[in-house]
Amino acid sequence: VAWGPNTNIKWSLPAVCFVWQLSMIILFGVFVRYNEESDTHWVDYRKENNITSDIENDYYFRYPSFQDVHVMIFVGFGFLMTFLKRYSFGAVGFNFLVAAFGIQWALLMQGWFHSLDYTDGKIKIGIENLINADFCVAGCLIAYGAVLGKVSPVQLLVMTLFGVTLFAVEEYIILNVLHAKDAGGSMVIHTFGAYYGLSISWVLYRPNLDKSKHLNGSVYHSDVFAMIGTLFLWMFWPSFNSAIADHGDGQHRAAINTYLALASTVLTTVAMSSLFEKTGKLDMVHIQNSTLAGGVAVGTAAEFMLSPYGSLIVGFFCGIISTLGYIYFSPFLEEKLKIQDTCGIHNLHAMPGVIGGIVGAISAAAATNTVYGDLGLENTFDFTGPFAKRVPTIQGGYQAAGLCVALCFGIGGGIFVGLVLKLPIWGDPADENCFDDEIYWEKCTISKQSSHMPLISPLWEVSM
Amino acid sequence: VAWGPNTNIKWSLPAVCFVWQLSMIILFGVFVRYNEESDTHWVDYRKENNITSDIENDYYFRYPSFQDVHVMIFVGFGFLMTFLKRYSFGAVGFNFLVAAFGIQWALLMQGWFHSLDYTDGKIKIGIENLINADFCVAGCLIAYGAVLGKVSPVQLLVMTLFGVTLFAVEEYIILNVLHAKDAGGSMVIHTFGAYYGLSISWVLYRPNLDKSKHLNGSVYHSDVFAMIGTLFLWMFWPSFNSAIADHGDGQHRAAINTYLALASTVLTTVAMSSLFEKTGKLDMVHIQNSTLAGGVAVGTAAEFMLSPYGSLIVGFFCGIISTLGYIYFSPFLEEKLKIQDTCGIHNLHAMPGVIGGIVGAISAAAATNTVYGDLGLENTFDFTGPFAKRVPTIQGGYQAAGLCVALCFGIGGGIFVGLVLKLPIWGDPADENCFDDEIYWEKCTISKQSSHMPLISPLWEVSM
Amino acid sequence: VAWGPNTNIKWSLPAVCFVWQLSMIILFGVFVRYNEESDTHWVDYRKENNITSDIENDYYFRYPSFQDVHVMIFVGFGFLMTFLKRYSFGAVGFNFLVAAFGIQWALLMQGWFHSLDYTDGKIKIGIENLINADFCVAGCLIAYGAVLGKVSPVQLLVMTLFGVTLFAVEEYIILNVLHAKDAGGSMVIHTFGAYYGLSISWVLYRPNLDKSKHLNGSVYHSDVFAMIGTLFLWMFWPSFNSAIADHGDGQHRAAINTYLALASTVLTTVAMSSLFEKTGKLDMVHIQNSTLAGGVAVGTAAEFMLSPYGSLIVGFFCGIISTLGYIYFSPFLEEKLKIQDTCGIHNLHAMPGVIGGIVGAISAAAATNTVYGDLGLENTFDFTGPFAKRVPTIQGGYQAAGLCVALCFGIGGGIFVGLVLKLPIWGDPADENCFDDEIYWEKCTISKQSSHMPLISPLWEVSM
Question: Could you read off the pLDDT of B150-160 as tens digits, one per residue?
């Protein structure tokens, strides 16, 4: 096996890791401190503010959800991408690297926009910041799905640096300037992340990618590994969509809506997968991915009074659309639009994300005092302060505007970053070496061995 | 490889999925709404009821346990069944499908019996309903274990439709009519589910199943995948048994009792497994399954004052009995009683479930005011309202009656549903195609390949 | 394949399991009861103590963290050790056995030291005891990493019996006598456990271990299985370090510090791994292990005001040191010091643990009233009762003393237990049978099959 000398990342990867990590330390030193709930002064703060119990600390409202989200980011995204027969190290390992960098950079970028204490110029962090950092990284990991197997870890780090930056800005515009709501991030995370990744993949189009076609597929047990990712994403999605929702009914309702939307999606995904095969067999690709579309699409509206059947309806259509996407749209994307999308993020994140934004806009516009209650309406949409006079119909318009912002940032940012990544300095693999762990990982070279010894090991083939 | 044309489920599977999912949407539209803790009116409800903090929302008492239970249902049950060398897709995938449908139908069925608001005829759901739906589905997934590899996904869906229905009725009789307690579901979930599955398997007996004997076993790594299921079930079982227990000491005690019973089971399982092999080797089947028996058996009594050593004793005997079941009773069941039990649910759920019911009855009958305290006794057994005059000894009798109800529903329901599933319309595999993913899954056909190319891939055999 | 007749554990393993489990039941019967928060008298206790809500039960403060820790113990440690190509059953299975015994013995040992109610001579247990039992077992599982593949399950149980006992004593000395703080157990768990295991491995040195060299390594998918362990350890480490920290800001801050330290470690681990390979490739051994070093090292200081950038700095250096350990120090340990350390626990637990103890001592000594607040300082370091007059600088000295105690107990205890394990009665494998599941597990014998049939199964090599 030959590969271009350019996949040597012996200097670039360590350099990027060291320099960026040192920068994080310096920036954290200058800017980041504990907030009043994670600082030892909490004990004074409690007394001053008549908080009766430690359990009122935001930590207890959000920590269980945080840990679930954390699992989604590292095990969910990581293992979902292990489906390729020969890229499991890259899937899990680079996902790990990119997310570990991204959460630090996100704490800073989101901190400057959302958690800056103007009295001392410091970012004050607590559990909600950790969740938001994980969310921010999710956008970049979605984008990774489009370029899986075709880029170097250095490129992934660059993608993440820019991705987190763009994310923080679009999030600020959508949530703060437009005052749109997006608890589960259909727009902010999924739409942005998916179009960011697709645009990058478009710019990095490889006309001769079929040279590594033999590795661009799964084997039996790599599909089983991928199901670990699928299931942890599916199971913990209610935590994802409720993690930063309002205390009390907000978190409660977001979890219920997501639980239901996801259940519905599974059935229509199975139905469509079976319907489009000769003898009604199921395709693992659909089960691994399209079953999750309902969680994406219910993200924005999860904390609204979408009602249980509303959630089921959203899930119902997303299972159908996402599976059809894998069957018809992915080949079209690749052949006509020249977008090579390894994991099919267009079907799992882009389309369901846009649907989620639209569902959010419609359900916000349709909100009434009867359904929500006066206080409930004010609470759910935060019609307070400068937004005290906003009404649901107007809110619906701002929600739609938010969706456009996410799309623009995703596409525009993706094209820009794609051009940066096209520079011939990042150590990406040649076409014939894509989807192969051998390029970036030690001790998994099969080529040398295969020339002088039989490669069949009896070790894993026992008790048949 | 030849299989009957009847395994074509191209129309039946999509039809069932679509029609049933549409029915769910309609029924949810008519019947299901948020309850007062997941509705935006919570903010008003809080004020009216002087609830001092959002953290008093039931969501915060139960959400962590809910997510653990959710993992048990989808990863625990799913991966536990991946032990077969060639049925991992069916194990994880059909488990996923069946559970996703079952939780919706369970929300309705259990809702009508337990959460119907008579003022407006609506089912009002919150986090506890989601947990109960997961519990209800657990009964059907246990039953799946008996028929694993021998039925079509359409049959599994039919099994689940009836299973959930029967479950909701027996649960209503046991918990509401008899007023028995069963926090961890030894009777309601495990006894019912196991006898339901065993009865179905008895009706569907295949005399020539040894035609697919070569696939009815594990390989090295399928056993490792199965350990993922085992461990997530084992670790989260304290959450399972405490998820719907009383707030405060009830949940606390249920978690402790389950933790201890399970620890004890592991040691006696290992002891028995080693004792019955020539050189003291361990059998993975026992480690994967019998180690969980203590969790089943401590289900009913988990919230009682079973005391820590009581829990250890329950676990001690269950490890022994369950392992002996795999060694002696499973062959007997198959040869003499004509019950083919793929996963050995008789040893993991049926016997421990019955033991759990008996332990529950005895420990309820033995409850005293000295041990529980007056208030504690009333709280634990809910001796209020129409049951205010019930005493522990009587309660013990009702507990025993509950066990009988679970048994009757399991056996009777199973025989009926077995007969329904015997109809030659469900696309089940021929005897020689059992335990083979090839029948229902795309891209895992080995037969064609094996005829014209060497099947040995070097890809997974590296760095030896 | 030949092995010594001494690997027959048909009598010793069942005997140890039964006798020890029976002893546990008797000792629990005599000593262990529920504490006031898990007993039905909680309802009275609440009223008497004006506790306004059930949510004030310690269960709700700690249960989510407990379950995360539980996952780390059983899935995290278990799967991390599956990296060996042919010892996955032993890794996951013996880890399971040892931990299940250890938590029971730990509840007793730690209970006598920490939770004995002197009014009735009973140990009163609640959720915090379960967490501490898991912690205690973690020390023994760390030690298992050094001897993985080279000892019998009986030896492991003996190791655990003594390990838990030694742990409870050193913990008592460090936390109670010296009044050092060690929320995440850098000293108490990691330093002790690692040196305990390394000392045992030193005493059990096998000069001819290279006879089983061919099995002392990984294959592609065993490395993927190991990543399950790595990631669950990494993700849930914030729960580990915060599980028994102070309510409120203590738990909150411990989670943040650990999250940050771990993120930082990933980047420097990747950097070092890449830097020391010819073409910048990564080594899975480093990614699986060194990425966790930051969590170890931030254990003691996690609940202190280490500040976010302080955590990043700790993680930064630990990634470097731990990876260098794998590259340079492990070979040195084996060749010069005759310590065979299968999993490299010296690099993952010993060095980072010592660093953690030192960081803890320094940050305690540097604590000021300005940073902590008067109340915060008193709370964080528990400067109350007999320790009311202690000041930070003195506390720093006691922290350092604690580290020495952990080291002494680890090394001294390990040498003693190593000598016990050297007795020729424990059924350990011959040098040529190390790292081989075949010795202790049924149905994974490859030798007999290989003599009369081709061992290549097509089953796992499909859809290429």
Answer: 999 999 999 99
Tell me if the domain spanning A66-117+125-441 has CATH number 1.10.3430.10: yes
Separation between Cα atoms, residue B261 and residue A296, nearest integer Å: 40
pLDDT in tens, A140-184: 999 999 999 999 999 999 999 999 999 999 999 999 999 999 999
Residue of A nearest to B38 (CA): A249
Of the residues B61, B75, B256, the best mutation for testing chain C's interface (the one with the most C CB atoms within 10 Å of its CB) is B256
Q: Which of A75, A58, A133 is CA-nearest to residue A102? A: A133
C406 closest CA partner among C233, C167, C208: C167
Model pLDDT for residues B413-456, shown as the tens digit of each residue: 999 999 999 998 898 999 999 999 999 999 765 433 333 333 33
From the CA of C318, how many Å to the nearest CA of chain B? 28
The listed CATH number (1.10.3430.10, 2.60.120.560, 1.20.1730.10, 1.10.3210.10) that belongs to domain B66-120+129-207+214-424: 1.10.3430.10
- pLDDT grade, residue C281 (50/70/90)? very high
- Rounded to whole angstroms, the Cα distance separating C203 from C195 reads 12
Distance CA(C138)–CA(A432), nearest Å, equals 45
Say if strands C32-34 and B116-117 run parallel, antiparallel, or are unpaired. Answer: unpaired
Instruction: Check: CB of residue C412 under 8 Å from CB of residue C203.
Output: no
Cβ distance B219 to A445 less than 8 Å, yes or no, reads no
Which three-class secondary structure state does DSSP give residue A117?
A: strand
Q: Which of A255, A262, A309 sits opposite B29 (nearest CB)?
A: A309
Half-sphere CA count of C252, side-chain side, radius 13 A: 28
The predicted structure's pLDDT at residue A7: 79
DSSP run (H or E) holding B305: none
Edge-to-edge strands, sheet with B122-125: B32-34, B122-125, B116-117
Go through C18-47 and write b for each residue having 16 or more CB atoms within 10 A of its CB, e for each that does not: bebbbebbebbeebbbbbbbbbbbbbebbe
Q: How many CA atoms lie within 13 A of B160 on its CB side?
A: 33
DSSP code for C50 = T
Q: Which H or E element spans position A125?
A: strand A122-125
CA separation for the pair C246, C61 (Å, rounded): 10
User: Tens digit of pLDDT for each residue in A247-281?
Assistant: 999 999 999 999 999 999 999 999 999 999 888 99
Q: Which of C267, C309, C371 sits opposite A100 (nearest CB)?
A: C267
Rounded Cα distance, C254 and A57, in Å: 14
Say how far apart CA C34 and CA C28 lie, in whole Å.
11
Subunits adjacent to chain B (3 or more Cβ pairs under 8 Å): A, C
Q: What is the largest CA-CA distance in chain A?
A: 77
Q: How far apart are CA C93 and CA A381, in angstroms?
A: 51
For B221, nearest residue in chain A (alpha carbons): A460
Please state, in angstroms and rounded to a whole number, the distance separating the CA atoms of residues B326 and B334.
Answer: 11
Task: Report how far residue C443's alpha carbon sits from residue C463's, in angstroms, rounded to the nearest whole number.
Answer: 27
Rounded CA-CA distance B172/B168 in Å is: 6
CB contact (8 A) between residue A96 and residue C268: no
Q: Which of B84, C213, C447 is nearest to A458 (CA)?
A: C447
**Is ipTM > 0.85 here?**
yes
Nearest chain C residue (CA) to A43: C376
Under 8 Å CB pairs connecting chains A and C tally to 273
pLDDT greater than 60 at residue A445:
no
Q: What is the mean pLDDT of residues C332-339?
A: 94
Which residues of chain B neighbour C89 with C-beta distances below 8 Å? 223-224, 282, 284
A268/B18 CB distance under 8 A: yes
Among the CATH numbers 3.40.50.300, 3.30.1300.10, 1.10.3430.10, 3.30.450.20, which is that of C8-440? 1.10.3430.10
